[in-house]
C-alpha cells in the first residue's frame, strides 16, 4: 500500500510540474498590441514580420497645408478609404496656407503620439518635426514637399513630366507660335518643379511669348478669374492664343473668365484633375481642353500604403514618384463621366497598385 501511495504522489507531482510550465508559457510578456515579441510600431524583429491584425486600430494624422478645391477633396477621400481598409482611424489637421502653422500642427501630432503621420504639401519648415517623429519611431510619409529627412518616405507627382505634356500639346495646337498667359505661384514644391520644365520650354520656343503671368494660393480659382478678366481687357481678341495653368484651381478660374468673356479663340491647358475639372474639360463650350494629372484618390491610397509598410516593418524606398497621364477632350465620350470612370478612356488612369504588398490582402479578408 505504501509503494502504491508513493507512485500516486509521484504522478501528481509530475502533473503539477507540467501545469506550472504551461501557465508560465502562456504568461510570457506581450507587447502593447498583444503579440509575443512583436512591436506594434513595426520595428524589425527576428523574423522581420508582424501579424497584420496587430496593425488594426492605428491612429493616423493627416496634416495638410491647405484643403482647397476638389483635387484636395478627392485626395482626402483616398486617404480615408485606405485607412479604413486597414482598420485605422484618421484625424485631419489643416494649416490654412500657413506653413509655420503646419509645422506647429506636425509637432502637436507628434506630442499626441499618433501611430503614423502623413503630410500634404509644406516645405523645409517641416524637417525639424519630421526628424523628431522619426526619432520617436513614428513613420512619416510626405506628399509634395521638398524635404530631405532620412527615414521619411517622400511622394511626389512627376511634375516636370506633367508640365512637359501640357506645354508640348499646347505648342502643337497653336502651331508653335503665339502669345500665352501663365498662371503659376512660387513657394510650393510641385509648382517649382513645373516651373523648371516651363523655363526649359520657353528657352526652346522663342516664338511662344509670355505676355502675362500671375497666381495666388489664396482663393486661387476666384483670384485667377478676377485677374484673367483684367488681362482679357488689356489684350483684345486675337492677342492671346492660350493659357498655361500650373494647377487645376488656376485653370478653373482662367477658363471661367474666358468663357464668360466669349473669347472662344483662347484655349486653356492645365495640370491636375478632379471630377469638377473633368466636367469642364468635357464641355465643348469650355476653353479648358486638356490636363496632365495623377488620380488624386490614388495619391491618397498610395500614401497610406507606404505608411502601413513602415508600420509592418518593411523598408520601402524613400523617394516615390507617381506617374501622370494626359487627359484631353478628344479622348473622352460625349456623355458626362467621373474620374472613377476615366480609366475606360485614358490608359494609365487610376487603380494604381503602387505601394501594394501581398500581405495587405489579409486586411481585405479579415473584416
From TrEMBL:
The keyword Isomerase does not apply. GO terms for molecular function: carbohydrate binding. CDD domains: PBP1_methylthioribose_binding-like. Keywords: Signal. One of its GO terms (cellular component) is outer membrane-bounded periplasmic space. Residues 60-313 form the Periplasmic binding protein domain. It holds the Pfam family Peripla_BP_4. The keyword Signal applies. Residues 31-50 are annotated as: Disordered. InterPro entries: Bact_Solute-Bind_Prot2, Peripla_BP_I, SBP_2_dom. Residues 1-25 form the signal peptide. Its main location: other. PROSITE patterns: PROKAR_LIPOPROTEIN (PS51257). Residues 33-50 have a biased composition (Polar residues). It is found in: Cell envelope. Belongs to the bacterial solute-binding protein 2 family. This is LacI family transcriptional regulator. The lineage of its organism: Bacteria, Bacillati, Bacillota, Bacilli, Bacillales.
